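Quick entry between incubations.
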Amino acid sequence: MSAVLARRLLALPAVLFLASVLIFLLPRAAGVDTARAVLRSRLGEAEPDPDVLAAIRLEFGLDASLAEQYLLWLSHAVVGDLGNSFVTRTPVSGLLFPALGVSLVLTAAALVLAAVAGIPAGVWSARRPGGRLDRAVTATSVLGVATPEFVLGTVLVLVFAVVLPLLPATGWGSVAQAVLPVITLAAFPAALAAQLTRAETVDALARPHVVVARSKGIAERAVLWRHGGRLALTSVASLSGLFFGGLLGGAVVVEVVFAVPGLGGLLYDSVVGQDLPVVQSALLVIVAAAGVASIAAEGLQLALDPVSRSAAV
Amino acid sequence: MSTLADRATPTWRSARVAVAAAVVVLVVLAVLPLDAITTDLSGRFAGPSLAHPLGTDQLGRDVLARLAAGTRLSVGFTLVALAICTGLGTLLGVLAAWAGRAAGQAFQRLIDVLVSVPAIVVGLVVVAASEGPPGLDTLLLAVVLTGWTPFARLTYQLTVRERAREYVEGAVAVGAGPLRIAFRHVLPNLLRPLTAHACLRFSNVLLSLAGLSFLGLGVQPPTPEWGAMLDEGRQYMFAAPQLVLLPAAAIVGTALLVTVLGRLVERRWNSA
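Done. Structure below.
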């Protein structure tokens, strides 16, 4: 078990290194002139003065070779110095880490809500496949998968902030402000978790150990949850790892719609404002978070599933 | 599992009727020759009338015409993007399955990483990395960059399974080369699962297109597109909520329609 995790942990720096090279090269590969990009992000589309361009090249060390620039960037990045924003000229880390905190809270809350809503719904609907409850859960989850965050978020704002002024439409900081963004972000993973849990539990309930459990006279509820639902947890756990990484980045839409000052919103603003250091740093953090989350999910899966534990050693 | 299928039958039958009706509505919408661009500032936010069955928007443009034009754009774009993703993913999946064990493992790890990157983030990266303003070309790149991976994963798994079958052994015995076996013998057997998978991915691509356009990273105004319409409508939510609800219904309805269609196709082929 620990060998698998150790191997994954060792692979993480390699993945991060590869990602950092790609992220560093990204604007250059596309032929973006960094000095012009700096000017454009500060002044709009004005035609740059050659002297100013040269000064900016000097300021950002753009005259060095690509490899030198990369090493300089990386050596600063590993000690937490991610450079200065083109736009605000303040350190990127000062923008990035508060935003990361906001996104972590938002994403974790959404995942918890998704698990609390999706997993029991899936187990309950597996109890009688084709029954009324099952059909209702299936229909809701299909609708949930087909509804993207920007539609759900906008409609929720329309209903709960405009038509019935119950909740604030934007912002971050109070519990009331968190309700709509968390629900919006949780809907899709909740729907997927319900579908996955249902399928796994239906399979599990047909297995021999469930027959044995029933024949021993164990209460139906215990059979359903301990012998059926528990097996589904394994795959839901591995899914949640994928989601945590994906949600951190995928929260872009939610953070834009609800004006939440998180990582996704920061990434969006910096892309629109062509603020390359912020874009690169935000991407790096998202990749790192996704990598850590996938390893954590694998650990959780091994802890929950004895079969994969013995198979993995 | 037979009880599951039996009990679900009436639901699926009514689903077939609903899907057929919805497809007809979409096709009729898409071919109607309506004017989606002309503005009429004296007739802004008009309610439903004979001239404008769904009313007009903030610039006095016909909402029905804009939704219909959005249908053509969304469905057309999605079909093109899906065709590229399917072709690329299938090709790479088959090649990886024939490239040996180590290459196959590396291929699967790469796909594991790429599959988990949300299309919106890819879209942001593509826009950040390109010099010009966003448009259909950056959208297509954003969708295709990671969109081929589910097809490649499916093709890889299916091809590895098919290779163990007897007909491949037979083909090897009569002297067929690996490429001939891959494309003439194995690939035709993958067409059904790949088509069913394409149906399931359709709504995903559709939602990426609408989502990126909603964020202003896709189709630019005044081109009528559902996601962009939804974004424009947000500013007039209080006065004209239909400008939000109509594009929202179009997006969710179409995604739902194709998802159900994909399941129907899958069911039919699985039972046949």
